[in-house]
Write a structure and sequence with these properties.
Structural class: alpha/beta
Strand order of the largest sheet: 3-2-1-4-5-6-7-8
CATH class of the largest domain: Alpha Beta
Number of helices: 15
Number of strands: 13
Number of domains: 2
Distance between the termini: 57 Å
Oligomer: single chain
CATH architecture of the largest domain: 3-Layer(aba) Sandwich
Largest sheet: 8 strands, mixed
Shape: globular
Radius of gyration: 24 Å
Helix content: 25-40%
CATH superfamily of the largest domain: NAD(P)-binding Rossmann-like Domain
């Protein structure tokens, strides 16, 4: 225990980051910035090569940031046997759902399979991936015990949920408070000390299970409120009301109301997925989480709602969706990022393609449509010019990137279906969806 704290104080403690993606990279950047040595691990050789040569694989991290991290001693590797060189190991791998909307922990377990032969006394292991309450004890602890180590005595186990928000200019890895729970009080003490070395505020909780529930509550809160406002959007539209005007006016109330805004659906690795980790675990206790599942159903129905609105709008102009040229504005799941995981834009594009539409997209954050396991489009981003816009039967505004010239879109498009409230809904060529 004291060797761990002494090494941390002397900045000799080496941190291993397992998974160099949207969570692992900013964590590695921040830890390197405070002078702790960092070794990054990933199964993708291309990702490792990019980082080791100073190139950022993710848009909102600059090459300069990667270069500073390298200058501070960072190294990336695919050789997981080198994990024995690290005093602290932080797991930041995906936790998706399978085809039956059940938790898929294969990335976590395969990481632990790789770590198992190299676990040693004195190490601290932290899981940051979102999962159900009890995962750290039920899944990670047996690996540590299989290695012949005693958690709380000569090995330390914690859970600290990631809270990254790509594209958020107000908060970053350093300033977002960090929740942490330990398997024992000693584990929590050491984990708190570790994270306090590079995070401004660390919030200890009573157990790993409590920390796991914190993350689910945060994202379920968002999912339920987004589902609520998406449902109200449909009612408001039928009544001829602008839901964005209504929300902005309600938000002037200084207490008791938090504005959430509707859209074409929900995307990213958190909100569409995390709530189902709790619904799955709740069934073990004979419970049915109706509220959570209803919000999920409402949010999942939004892409079809947008497509139906598009079909209706095209009909008004005497145009069938089959053969219609439709330009999608924004395929990332949120503004000003290059992340398409669970993006509703992609689901909408597939629905339109299946109906026979000629679908194209424009998104400066994603020059080429990325390779995805479940989606296949051989497309590149079209430049957003007057000529490009006029060539379309409809423009579908799905992601409200800040670099889009919305005045140009409104002026040149014969029809715009706006899911983000960026344009004037009183204009005859603008349809809200």
């Amino acid at each position: 225990m004291y060797n761990f704290l002494e090494s941390l104080a002397a900045k000799r403690l080496r941190v291993g980051i397992l998974g160099l993606g949207y969570v692992g990279i900013p964590l590695a950047i921040r830890i390197s910035a405070v002078g702790l040595p960092v070794l990054g691990f990933d199964i993708l050789q291309d990702r490792v090569d990019e980082l080791n040569t100073g190139r950022s694989p993710i848009k909102h991290f600059s090459d300069e940031e990667i270069g500073r991290m390298l200058a501070a001693g960072f190294e990336a590797t695919t050789d997981f046997s080198r994990s024995t060189e690290c005093d602290a190991l932080i797991i930041c791998v995906p936790t998706p759902l399978n085809l039956y909307r059940e938790p898929d922990l294969s990335f976590v377990t395969s990481t632990m399979d790789s770590l198992l032969p190299n676990l040693r006394e004195g190490q601290l292991l932290s899981l940051e991936s979102t999962t159900w309450p009890g995962t750290t004890e039920e899944v990670l602890l047996p690996y540590v015990e299989k290695a012949g180590l005693c958690v709380g005595s000569n090995f330390f186990l914690v859970y600290s949920p990631e809270r990254e928000d790509p594209g958020n200019a107000s908060f970053d890895t350093q300033t977002i408070p960090k929740v942490i729970g330990g398997h024992t009080s000693v584990c929590r003490e050491l984990g708190t000390a570790l994270y306090s070395a590079f995070i401004d505020r660390v919030v200890p909780v009573s157990s790993t299970k409590a920390a796991e529930m914190v993350k689910l509550l945060e994202n379920i809160h968002r999912s339920v409120n987004i589902g609520l406002v998406n449902e109200i959007k449909i009612v408001a539209d039928k009544m001829g009301l602008n839901i964005f005007e209504v929300i902005d006016a309600a938000a002037t109330k200084p207490f008791g109301f938090t504005p959430y805004y509707p859209g074409p659906g929900i995307g990213g690795h958190c909100i569409p997925i995390d709530p189902f980790y709790l619904t799955w675990k709740a069934r073990e206790f004979g419970l049915h989480t109706r509220f959570i599942e209803l919000a999920g159903e409402v949010n999942a129905s939004m892409p079809q709602y947008v497509v139906d609105k598009t079909i209706g709008a095209l009909n008004t102009y005497g145009k069938a969706v089959k053969g219609a040229k439709i330009l999608v504005l924004g395929i990332a799941y949120k503004r000003d990022v290059d992340d398409v995981r669970e993006s509703p834009s992609v689901f909408i594009m597939e629905l339109l393609r299946d109906l026979g539409a000629e679908v194209a997209y424009s998104d400066s954050n994603l020059p080429n449509f990325p390779e995805m396991r479940e989606h296949d489009f051989d497309l590149s981003s079209m430049p957003l010019t007057a000529e490009t816009i006029r060539a379309q039967d409809a423009v579908l505004l799905l992601t409200d990137h800040s670099d889009v010239d919305y005045d140009l879109v409104a002026r040149e498009a014969r029809l715009v279906i706006d899911t983000r409230g960026k344009l004037d809904f009183s204009s005859p060529n603008v349809v809200r969806a």
